[in-house]
UniProtKB/TrEMBL annotation:
Protein's recorded name: SsrA-binding protein
Ion transport recorded as keyword: no
Gene it is expressed from: smpB
UniProt keywords, alphabetically: Cytoplasm, RNA-binding
Subcellular location: Cytoplasm
Annotated segments matching region Disordered: 138-159
UniProt cross-references to Gene3D superfamilies, sorted A to Z: 2.40.280.10
């Protein structure tokens, strides 16, 4: 589960896809940079973004973030960006190959998990190679979560 190199997301948090961990079984995570326009960076610094409905796609040897919503920056008049434009993800070539193989051979999906600024002020996206869960798996996840919550409540009452 995850990379051997654990990267900390200690920078400024922007957006999270909370539904992804419920709908998908996360196999491996990657940290990707994003190619952004200036007004997009300003909008992200305001903490406005939505990656819940977005996904990543492999096309012509490159990774693209599709359907992520970064609202227009209000002070930017005519030089603004398109809110739902495709954004190129910056990854090492071997990471791109690994993601592409996972999608092509194993039928997995590339799901964005978190969008944040790292310590150096660069916008980063945490993406995951994931497999979709069926209804029974989702029910099992909900049962485990409820049981852990109940268990912690019981332990807290006894102590």
């Amino acid at each position: 589960m995850g990379n051997s190199k654990k990267k900390k997301t200690s920078g400024k948090f922007i957006a999270e896809n909370r539904r992804a961990r419920f709908d998908f079984a996360i196999d491996e995570t990657f940290e990707a940079g994003i190619m952004l326009h200036g007004t997009e960076v300003k909008s992200l610094r305001n903490g406005e973004a939505n990656i819940a409905e977005s996904y990543a796609s492999y096309e012509n040897g490159e990774m693209w973030l599709i359907n992520a919503h970064v609202p227009e920056y209000l002070e930017a008049n005519k030089f603004n960006h398109e809110p739902r434009r495709r954004r190129k993800l910056l990854l090492h070539q071997k990471e791109i190959v690994k993601l592409a193989n996972g999608v092509d051979r194993q039928g997995m999906t590339i799901v964005p998990l978190k969008l944040y600024f790292n310590d150096r002020g660069r916008a980063k996206l945490e993406i995951a190679l994931a497999k979709g869960k069926n209804v029974a798996d989702k029910r099992e996840t909900a049962k485990k979560r409820d049981w852990n919550r109940e268990k912690s409540r019981i332990l807290k009452e006894n102590n």
